[in-house]
Amino acid sequence: MGLSLSSGRVVALLALMRELAHTRDALALRGAITHHLLDLFEADYLASYEWNAEAGRFEAGVYLNMDPANLARYEAYYQYRDPITFKLQARRQATAVAEVMPQDQLVRTEFFNDFLQRDGLWWGMNVYAYDGARNVGDIRLWRSRRRENFGRDDLRLLDDVGRAFAAALKSARALTGAGTARRLEPVSLADRFGLTLREAEVAALAAQGLGDAGIAARLAIGHATVRTHLGRVFQKAGVASRSALAARLLGQDPDPWPHPQM
Predict the structure, then answer these.
(1) Which of 99-103, 134-138, 214-218, 241-245 has the lowest mean pLDDT?
(2) Separation CA 174–CA 168 (nearest Å)
(3) Beta carbons within 10 angstroms of residue 90's beta carbon
(4) 50 vs 58: CA distance, rounded Å
């Protein structure tokens, strides 16, 4: 890559590449790499979506450090009034948001003032993964106003990561089929794996990449309650990490399911 990285960023890069080498469902894969991406690019916020060309919308979002209610507004409204993302999506390389719309223009838009600014997103860069002509996933990284904008080295590194990300998503599509990532339905998980309905709701959101705060906000429960439910889910599923949980819930773990403890 020819880049000089701090020891912390090297650790994050190695962890990221290990996750990308682990073939699994595309939704679980995107959820598993979120923290590593934030650490590697010294970013404050992340979102990642899959493009549904038939419906003409971004779906199956995972994110970090963003308000779930604000993301719900994006999915329902602001993605259709977004002045930057379709320009970024058309690029086959990592691109800074300022390259498609200068910052002084962006801050005057409804999209910025009523969506981005609510969570503090200021400087952004995106990369979009393609399988042939089809956009199969993306990485959207943002920094707050107190930081510097992403530089050329960041974009070069994101290009390299983007190629590995695209290859991993292609493997995931080959494994699970070329459609939109499978959804985890809590009722089905509860029935299949001996979870309570609330445990299944927490498990499904964790497998999608939501952190404790995001799960708590989505379900209107406390952080401690989220941790309690996750502990029980991990015990019943016989796993020790969220990425392993996602793989097991999606039926891609090579080991058989343990008999649930009722």
Answers:
(1) 214-218
(2) 10
(3) 11
(4) 6
The CATH number linked to 17 is 3.30.450.80
Residue 117 lies in a domain: yes
Helix (H, G, I), strand (E, B) or coil at 157: helix
Structural domain that includes position 231:
186-249
Is residue 162 within 8 Å of residue 94, measured between CB atoms? yes
pLDDT digits 0-9 by tens, 44-60: 999 999 998 888 999 88
- Residue 5 to residues 39, 41, 142, 241, Cα–Cα distance (Å): 12, 10, 19, 27
Residue 182 has pLDDT above 60, yes or no: no
Residue pair 197/187 in contact by the 8 Å Cβ criterion = yes
The region that residue 236 occupies, defined by phi over 0 for left and psi between -120 and 50 for alpha, beta otherwise, is alpha
pTM, two decimal places: 0.72
Phi/psi zone of residue 60: left (φ > 0), alpha (ψ -120 to 50 degrees), beta?
left
